[in-house]
């Protein structure tokens, strides 16, 4: 079974189904709570149904781990592979018509992040595909990609997710970094933001909230690491977590070790 071919077909099917709803009131219809804890919007369910239909068309056997419906067994041998997905990353952007949305797929033989072997993140609006296979590097639209050489905070473009009710605590922790960094961004689809670090568009992405779902980062984890970048916990250790829709993480993702050390040093200032 050629997983990348199936994932690419799935991403195109999702694009076909999602684009007519992009930026419409219909996209925003609420359909209950998802396994990840967020409200499911119609556009989310349309994306997931497109994926499931493609898997069934190809008679794929796998355990689907999805932000929307949770864990779903598909086919006669569902424990042979695990497919961790956020069928539509950037739901708020999609419902409001903001052009930064993606679909994300990670394939593994165990339900653990460290065992992801194949990954694809697809930029739905701009038709850009990021893929990675373990020990084979990362491709952006079939071309090898690598992170930027930027090492200084003054020159770095850094994404930070500020979406939290505990904003005062987060700002306190980030203040030394915010004072040093000139170019901050948050674009609203975390899988795609991490891929931007992988291809050098940005230099780092930070999420210290403890709210980021593993379904959002499973594919980008492999894509960034295969490109030569770094993704670790805020303490600097490997992110070794189960692939579960309810699993949340915090992380620092950077283009290189020097930039990571500069970021970490500024975050550590608030601990003294």
**SSE series:** HEEHEEEHEEEEEEHEHEHEEH
User: What percent of residues adopt helix (DSSP H or I)?
Assistant: 25-40%
How many extended strands?
15
Report on the biggest sheet: 8 strands, mixed
**Low-confidence segments, ≥5 residues, pLDDT <50?**
none
Chain oligomer state = single chain
Cα radius of gyration in angstroms: 18 Å
Number of helices: 7
The fraction of residues in strands falls at 25-35%
Would you tell me the structural class of the helices and strands? alpha+beta
User: In CATH terms, what is the fold-level topology of the largest domain?
Assistant: Fructose-1,6-Bisphosphatase, Chain A, domain 1
List the strand order in the largest sheet.
4-3-5-6-7-8-9-10
Please identify, by name, the CATH architecture of the largest domain: 2-Layer Sandwich
Number of separate structural domains: 2
By CATH, the superfamily of the largest domain comes out as: Fructose-1,6-Bisphosphatase, subunit A, domain 1
Question: Secondary-structure map with pairings?
Answer:
Elements: H1 3-18, E1 30-33, E2 39-41, H2 42-57, E3 62-66, E4 70-74, E5 82-89, H3 91-96, E6 102-108, E7 116-123, E8 128-133, E9 138-140, E10 143-144, E11 157-160, H4 167-180, E12 183-185, H5 190-198, E13 204-213, H6 214-227, E14 230-232, E15 248-254, H7 257-268
Structural description of this entry:
The chain is of the alpha+beta class and 272 residues long. It folds into two domains: 3-144, Fructose-1,6-Bisphosphatase, subunit A, domain 1 (Fructose-1,6-Bisphosphatase, Chain A, domain 1); 157-271, 3-Layer(aba) Sandwich (D-Maltodextrin-Binding Protein, domain 2), CATH 3.40.190.80. It has helices at residues 3-18, 42-57, 91-96, 167-180, 190-198, 214-227, 257-268, and strands at 30-33, 39-41, 62-66, 70-74, 82-89, 102-108, 116-123, 128-133, 138-140, 143-144, 157-160, 183-185, 204-213, 230-232, 248-254. The strands form three sheets. It has an eight-stranded mixed sheet with strand order 4-3-5-6-7-8-9-10, sandwiched between helices. It has a five-stranded mixed sheet with strand order 12-11-13-15-14. The longest helix is centred in the N-terminal third of the chain and has 16 residues, at 3-18.
């Amino acid at each position: 079974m050629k997983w990348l071919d199936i994932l690419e077909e799935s991403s195109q099917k999702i694009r076909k189904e999602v684009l007519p709803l992009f930026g419409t009131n219909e996209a925003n219809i609420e359909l209950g709570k998802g396994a990840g804890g967020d409200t499911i919007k119609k556009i989310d369910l349309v994306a997931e149904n497109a994926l499931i239909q493609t898997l069934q068309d190809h008679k794929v056997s796998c355990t689907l781990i999805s932000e929307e419906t949770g864990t779903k067994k598909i086919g006669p041998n569902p424990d042979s592979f695990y497919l961790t997905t956020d069928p539509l990353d950037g739901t708020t952007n999609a419902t409001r018509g903001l052009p930064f949305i993606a679909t994300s797929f990670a394939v593994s033989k165990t339900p653990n992040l460290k065992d992801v072997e194949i990954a694809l993140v697809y930029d739905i609006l701009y038709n850009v595909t990021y893929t990675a296979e373990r020990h084979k590097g990362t491709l952006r639209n079939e071309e090898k990609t690598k992170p930027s050489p930027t090492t200084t905070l003054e020159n770095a473009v850094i994404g930070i997710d500020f979406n939290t009710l505990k904003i005062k605590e987060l700002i306190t922790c980030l203040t030394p970094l915010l004072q040093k960094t000139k170019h901050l961004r948050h674009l609203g689809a975390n899988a795609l933001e991490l891929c931007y670090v992988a291809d050098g568009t940005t230099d780092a992405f930070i999420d210290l909230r403890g709210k980021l779902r593993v379904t959002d980062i499973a594919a980008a984890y492999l894509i960034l690491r295969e490109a030569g970048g770094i993704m670790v916990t805020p303490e600097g250790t490997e992110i070794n977590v189960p692939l579960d829709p309810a699993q949340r993480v915090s992380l620092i993702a950077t283009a290189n070790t020097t930039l990571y050390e500069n970021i970490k040093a500024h975050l550590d200032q608030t601990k003294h």
